[in-house]
Amino acid sequence: MSYEHIRVETRGAVGLVTLDRPEAMNALCDGLLREVSAAVRAFAADDGVGAVVLTGGDEVFAAGADIKEMQGRPFVDLFLGDFPNSHQEVWVTLEQCRKPVIAAVAGYALGGGCELAMACDFILAAETAKFGQPEVKIGALPGAGGTQRLTRLVGKSKAMEMCLTGRLMDAAEAERVGLVSRVLPVERLLDEALAVAGRIAELSRPAVFMAKEAVKVADETTLQEGLRFERRLFEAAFATADCAEGMAAFAGKRKPAFRNR
Ligand code: HXC
C-alpha cells in the first residue's frame, strides 16, 4: 500500500510509522489518521513484526487535529459519524492492537497529537517534547481521550490545569508526573525507541500479549478483578512452550529460544 501522509517501514522485527506532513506540523487530517490506522493494522497482522514504533520524527510529533479541515463541520455530521472514533478509526485500531505500540515523541504533541501518543502503550520523549491539550483555546475540548487518558495518567489536578488553560508540559515535567516513561536526547530518541521495540519483539509473543492485556485491564476494572485477571493469565502462561523454554533457559544459564508458542 502506498501512503501520502506517513512513511512506513520495518526495521528487523519492528514496524516503524513516521507521521510525515511537515508543512502542517503533522496535523492529523483524516487521511493521515486513516493511513496510521491501516499501517498499524498491517503490522498487527504481520507475523514478522513483534512491536511498533510511532513517531513524528525529530521536529514535531503532531500539532493536533487538522483545524483547517475540522473547521466548519456541522455538529450533526460529527455526531452521526461518531467523530473522531468511527471516522478516524485509528483510535479503535490502537485500542485493539495486541502488539506493543511505542510513541517516540519529539517537539509538540498537542491536542489530538497528545491523545495519539497517549493511545500508544508508552511514550519515550525527547528533551524537546512538549505535551498539551490546548483545544480550549479554540473554543473546543479534547475529543479523543484527552480528558480521560490524561487524567488517568497524571491525575485530576494536572489534567484539569492542562485542559482548562491549554498550558504545555515539557519533557521533564511529563516524566516526573508519569506521562512518559523516559526522556532522551533528541538525537537518540528514535534509535532507543527502535532498540526497546526490538527487545520486546525478541520476547515470547504470548507473554508480551498477556502482559499488555493485563496492564490495560488496570485502567478498566477494580483492583480485585484486575488481580484475578492477572492471576488467571499468569497461570495460563504456564501452558505455553515459551514459558517452559524461558525457565529452562534460565536454569541452564543459556539464552531462551522463543517460538511464540
Ligand atoms: C492545521 C496546523 C496545525 C493544526 C499547525 N498548523 N498546527 N494546521 N491544524 N493543528 C500549521 C499552521 O497553520 C502553519 O501552516 C504551519 O502548521 C506551522 O505552524 P505555525 O503556527 O506557523 O508554527 P509555530 O508558530 O511554530 O506554532 C506551532 C504551534 C501552533 C504552537 C504548534 O501551530 C499551534 O498552536 N497549532 C495548533 C495547536 C492546537 O490547537 N492543537 C489542537 C487542535 S484540536 P501555514 O500554512 O500557515 O504555514 C484537536 C482536537 C483533537 O487536536 C480531536 C481528536 C482528533
From TrEMBL:
EC number: 4.2.1.17
CDD domains with a match to the protein in the record: crotonase-like (cd06558)
InterPro entries in alphabetical order: ClpP/crotonase-like_dom_sf, Enoyl-CoA_hyd/isom_CS, Enoyl-CoA_hydra/iso, Enoyl-CoA_hydra_C
Keywords recorded for this protein, A-Z: Fatty acid metabolism, Lipid metabolism, Lyase
This protein's record includes keyword DNA-binding: no
Domain of life: Bacteria
Keyword Lipid metabolism: yes
BP term (GO), one: fatty acid beta-oxidation
Catalytic activity of the protein: a (3S)-3-hydroxyacyl-CoA = a (2E)-enoyl-CoA + H2O; a 4-saturated-(3S)-3-hydroxyacyl-CoA = a (3E)-enoyl-CoA + H2O
Transmembrane segments: none
GO MF, any single term: enoyl-CoA hydratase activity
Matches recorded under Gene3D superfamilies: 2-enoyl-CoA Hydratase, Chain A, domain 1, Lyase 2-enoyl-coa Hydratase, Chain A, domain 2
A Pfam short name: ECH_1
Function: Could possibly oxidize fatty acids using specific components.
Similarity comment text for this entry: Belongs to the enoyl-CoA hydratase/isomerase family.
Protein name: enoyl-CoA hydratase
